[in-house]
Predict the structure.
Amino acid sequence: MIRALFYKKKTGKLSFLKTSFWTFSIVSLAGVGYSGYSQYRLEQSKIELSQNHFVKYKVKWRKFVDEKHYLLEIEPLKPQKVNVWNQNGYRKLWSVEIKQPQIHVVRNYTPLPLTHVEDTSDEISLKVLDDDKIDNGKLMFYIKSYDNGEVARWLSKLPIGHEIEVRGPYIEYEFPEAPSDEVVLDRGFLNSSEETSLGNKSKYKSFDINFFSAGTGIVTPLQLMLTQDPFKGKIQIIHACKNYQKELAPLLPLLKKLENHDRLKMHYFENFRKELTNCRVLDKIAETPYPFHDLTTLNNGSTSLKPIFSLVVGPDGFIESVCGPKYELHQGPITGYLGQKGWNNNTVFKLS
Ligand SMILES: Cc1cc2nc3c(=O)[nH]c(=O)nc-3n(C[C@H](O)[C@H](O)[C@H](O)COP(=O)(O)OP(=O)(O)OC[C@H]3O[C@@H](n4cnc5c(N)ncnc54)[C@H](O)[C@@H]3O)c2cc1C
């Protein structure tokens, strides 16, 4: 039977034509199979969040906090396998880009490891994603919509279920890595309704930092504290906004719990411009930077807050008055309030 495929019927000799035909057919089939397999591999790789391509998500849930601010939860069409929270942890501050397809622009947004809790009341209730449960890769954002803005306004009106395209993560800042045997700080208390004890402490003496944030800029330090394997030191947030009780309402219980667990110290300023003119409170809380100590010094249990570094996040005008203007990708010199207090480019970082 197989002989008939390759040999001449009459002479019984190997047929050049038949052999060529079958060789060509087999090679073509293998080629088609390989290209199909490569295409499959490419499609598979496009499922995971990446800087190299956009991944499709859909709008899962959205709720306005006040007239301008809203929470937006999006879910990938195909569940993610990579735990991006675990990957970045306390080490990296990150954002993703969301595309507005009609005008071909992208804007960055800072995901939070939160999900909403379904309930019938009007109050928004949020829950921190449990360790290693990535909930298919859902992402939550806290966004401000601007009257003349393009993307945040567009996102605020999309119907539930609408597909959007996302790429990333983009690393905005990277902290030094703790020793490999450092403990992972517990954050179970964030989902507990009962008062729990202070939880575990870091093995090594960690460093504390200041965040000067304005408006939605508060999501950056929040990402660092809510993420799986959260920031090891204490964070002091000096936050400028119009009405923190209204704007931050659903986030306040989490901020309060972080304060009760000695991870965070919050200072709200509803008229930050005025505060900058007299610095009555600022001068008491934003002291000159404390010296950096070796990351392998054992934790001696000290509870006082000693910031060695300040990160500044918010609109251009806010950054300028706190620490001087940022020039695109260049940090520029440290001037403004922090400059006057002796902070410099080694101790301040201006975020976008
Ligand atoms: C790394 C990074 C992370 C970010 N994370 C978030 C986030 O989690 N949540 C969030 O809401 N935004 C975040 N932003 C800002 C966001 O990317 C957009 O700039 C913002 O949503 C406005 O875009 P828009 O297209 O709606 O408005 P645009 O069309 O860009 O601007 C419309 C108008 O609003 C003004 N405007 C734009 N942004 C600001 C601002 N921040 N303060 C004051 N005026 C402004 C513009 O000057 C203009 O007049 C982040 C930005 C960066 C770089």
Notes: The CA atoms of residues 178 and 295 lie 7 Å apart. The chain is about 25% helix and 25% strand. The two ends are 73 Å apart (CA to CA).
